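Q: Got a minute? One more chain.
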Amino acid sequence: MLAAPGDGSLVVKNASGPRSGNVAVVALTINGAAFGHVDQGHIVIDDPTPNTGPSPEVNAGPTGVVGRKDYPAMSDTAQIWGGTDFKFRAVGGRYTILIYGSGIDVVALGTGTVTLTGLTNTPLSDGSYSLNGADFHSLPGQSTKLLTIGTPPALPNG
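A: Always. Here it is, folded:
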């Protein structure tokens, strides 16, 4: 996949987040590509236009449709996978991806937004991230503000 004008990047290394509650370590919306690995946890991927391109691939089980009561922001096209030591990829579309657990590695390229949440117990190593090629930073104990990946294309004047 070649980078388009305005594309940016997100790299997350060995991230871990809250073990309870419904707070994702990585809450990503990307128009482009995302792939990664999870040591232990689960992932929710919403592909709102599943018939227009490649479907997300996850080598974990079981797969299923997301319960709306558990993830109310997700649409009927969202699916959930979980387990240990699994990989995922979502390429060539617009996806919303929520990742929960530990040992999370993600690379995303394109344009979009992300919120990141590490562990509140700061002496523990909860991973690091780099946004748009900047230096790596430790994941914060509280969710970041909505961070922008890349630069959205300018709207034409008119």
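A: The beta strands are 8-15, 26-46, 57-58, 64-65, 78-116, 128-131, 137-138, 147-149.
Q: Perfect, thanks.
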